[in-house]
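Chapter review: from sequence to fold.
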Amino acid sequence: MLALVRYRLALVLHSHRWLPPLLLYAMLLVVGVRAGEPVLDALGLVAAALLPTAAWLVRVGVAAEPPAARACAVAAAGRARVRLAAVLTALTTSAAFGVAGTVAVLLISDEHGADRRSPIPLGQAAAAGLLAMLTCALLGTALGVLCNRPLLRSPAWSIPVTALAAIALLAGGASPANAAVSTLIDGSQRGAVDWPLLPVGCAALVAAATTTLSCATPRPD
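The token string follows.
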């Protein structure tokens, strides 16, 4: 699996298809995050912006190689392993984006709560922000798996469904992504750091279930 993931990472890197998702993520952060904002509020936005980015990166990973090269990889390693490698590649790339965004926000944000008086320990804020980021990366990856090959093949459907579902996952009260971001924002209002452990666990289960479904689907890519 490590060799397959490295192969697909190299494909994505050299194809430059990761640039549009990165530009989307950077644009969302530039528009939404301002220097001097409370750190937990800014980290919540960093996490939320990663969900649609991760879903897009799954599409990039699925389409990273020509059909002939994909057929060779399937013949050598098996269809399920090739699909799993594509998902892991997207998750790894989105996590790298999220870590970079988290570090940038930690450097420019105010180390206080929303009242501008309650101090927020930066180390605890970073850990909570990374957990929220991982939650959104996992859910975005799961969304990308559901809305791309082999489960949903037509771009005419997959692109708008992905966009609408990403909005629903961020806005829905029952969504782990919404819960993770709300945990950070609520902590900022109270001047305390809460770690979104339950949301990240739920997101991991959802990502594992959707990836298993994709890998087990007999339909060709």
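Two observations follow directly from the output. The longest helix spans residues 79-108. The mean pLDDT is 92.
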